[in-house]
Amino acid sequence: NDEERQAIADYIIRIILKSNDNLRLVKTEDPEIAQNELYCFSLLGDYPVIYLDKIKKIFTPSVPRGAFLILGMSKPMAKLPEGVTLDLSKEKPWDKDKRIKDQIVSKAQAAGKPLDHPALEYLFGAIGPDQALLERELEKLICFAQDKKSIDLTSVQTLVMPSVQQSTWQIAEQIVWEKRLPKQISSNDFPVLVGSIRYQLELGLALCTLTPEQFQEHYPKLRPRAVDKYRNCHLPLSFFEKGLQALYKAERLFKDGISNGGLCLDLFMGQLCST
Fold first, then answer.
1. Which of 171, 188, 229, 266 has its CA 20 to 30 A from that of 212?
2. Does the structure show a pLDDT above 70 at 44?
3. 4-34: string of b/e by CB count within 10 Å (b at 16+)?
4. How many of the other CB atoms lie within 10 Å of CB of 44?
5. Distance (Å, rounded) from C-alpha 256 to C-alpha 249?
6. What residue spans define the domains of the chain?
7. Closest CA to 117 of 213, 272, 205, 222
8. Is the pTM of this model over 0.70?
9. How far is CA 245 from each of CA 19, 60, 177, 198, 274, rounded to the nearest angstrom?
10. Percent of the chain predicted with pLDDT > 70
């Protein structure tokens, strides 16, 4: 979408501008303006960084030495312009999720407020793979975590309201701890759920293998009431071990294109409930 493309372009532009003090940025959707600015060097000796967005046809002028030309398009083209390209039109769902998560983590790190892994999974599960919404929530979390060294799960649970009917975090809890699949789940939800399901299975594995002191050290932000709720399920170690194996197999089938998300989720649930 436009917001996500703009966010990626801004990230690239920031990197370029940091590389040289003698650069000036020009943003436009008019190819004629872009072409004129591309060959316009000021008396101060600066070089243009042109961002031409929403191009409708191939635009490949000769770029002068020292100048930069960045092109953005909202719709796929039969032929991409020559040069370094970032084509997201065929991006796999899991690759998109990873890319967005990595960018959110990097942004939090740059602000001096690292995002804990459980907090990231909860945030992603509550909001979904919408980069613009995730960044807005992150800005709110960064402001809230003024005196804290990092953004933890408790902070995210306090401030972030799920934008979907039921967050993937809650759904993953039901799948793992209650062996129950909510009715509203669709085949498109599988790649989004994988990270949250894996976290819940790894959490259960830790409950079965670590002492209470070790568990507290690994999950310091997890509320005691939540830990008690998980312990009261009395699920054995083998359940979580086989669950992780089943999740890996289902994820592999999905990534290899052998099966769709709905069938992969059914396969995983069948193996999980048989343990």
1. 171
2. no
3. bbbbbbeeebeeeeeeeeebeeebeeeeeeb
4. 7
5. 11
6. 2-71, 93-273
7. 222
8. no
9. 45, 49, 16, 10, 13
10. 88
